[in-house]
Amino acid sequence: MRDSRSYPRRQEPKEFDEKVIQVSRVSKKTKGGNQIGFSVLMVVGDKKGRVGVGLGKAPDVVGGIKKGVRRAKKNLITVPLKNDTIPHDIIFKFGAAKILLKPAPPGSGVIAGGPVRAVMEAAGVKNISSKVLGTRNPASNVYATIKALKKLEKI
């Protein structure tokens, strides 16, 4: 009988690229004291046009990351790409967040702020220019970016 501890596990290549956007420590008042947990916002993408976002809540960060990844994989969307950029410009407002996305010429790269950059890189968009016009809340900006990408039309 082989001992499973002596053989290292083989890492299979991951289908999706996972990125943590925000980790929030939250607490709830209970009769026995404060109950502490974590809320983790995750973005997953295959860098070929599919991207998803998920929010995982758990008593520890690792559990929150796993739940966030699982939920993000369930909420995948397909982004229409045209020459490694988006087909047309779009301004989208979601709550207090307002996002401007514009196609960019080849070689210009991803010109975007933190949360929007993470979503674009996970989706596989290589050339884009963007501006966050509303709130600075990373979660709102990620959700607004995903909704804006959903609204894009294939030309």
From TrEMBL:
<dbReference type="InterPro" id="IPR000851">
    <property type="entry name" value="Ribosomal_uS5"/>
</dbReference>
<dbReference type="InterPro" id="IPR013810">
    <property type="entry name" value="Ribosomal_uS5_N"/>
</dbReference>
<dbReference type="InterPro" id="IPR014721">
    <property type="entry name" value="Ribsml_uS5_D2-typ_fold_subgr"/>
</dbReference>
<comment type="function">
    <text>Located at the back of the 30S subunit body where it stabilizes the conformation of the head with respect to the body.</text>
</comment>
<dbReference type="GO" id="GO:0019843">
    <property type="term" value="F:rRNA binding"/>
</dbReference>
<dbReference type="Pfam" id="PF03719">
    <property type="entry name" value="Ribosomal_S5_C"/>
</dbReference>
<dbReference type="GO" id="GO:0005737">
    <property type="term" value="C:cytoplasm"/>
</dbReference>
<dbReference type="GO" id="GO:0006412">
    <property type="term" value="P:translation"/>
</dbReference>
<comment type="function">
    <text>With S4 and S12 plays an important role in translational accuracy.</text>
</comment>
<dbReference type="Pfam" id="PF00333">
    <property type="entry name" value="Ribosomal_S5"/>
</dbReference>
<keyword id="KW-0687">Ribonucleoprotein</keyword>
<comment type="subunit">
    <text>Part of the 30S ribosomal subunit. Contacts proteins S4 and S8.</text>
</comment>
<dbReference type="InterPro" id="IPR020568">
    <property type="entry name" value="Ribosomal_Su5_D2-typ_SF"/>
</dbReference>
<dbReference type="GO" id="GO:0015935">
    <property type="term" value="C:small ribosomal subunit"/>
</dbReference>
<dbReference type="InterPro" id="IPR005324">
    <property type="entry name" value="Ribosomal_uS5_C"/>
</dbReference>
<comment type="similarity">
    <text>Belongs to the universal ribosomal protein uS5 family.</text>
</comment>
<keyword id="KW-0689">Ribosomal protein</keyword>
<keyword id="KW-0699">rRNA-binding</keyword>
<protein>
    <recommendedName>
        <fullName>Small ribosomal subunit protein uS5</fullName>
    </recommendedName>
</protein>
<dbReference type="GO" id="GO:0003735">
    <property type="term" value="F:structural constituent of ribosome"/>
</dbReference>
<keyword id="KW-0694">RNA-binding</keyword>
<dbReference type="InterPro" id="IPR005712">
    <property type="entry name" value="Ribosomal_uS5_bac-type"/>
</dbReference>
<feature type="domain" description="S5 DRBM">
    <location>
        <begin position="16"/>
        <end position="79"/>
    </location>
</feature>
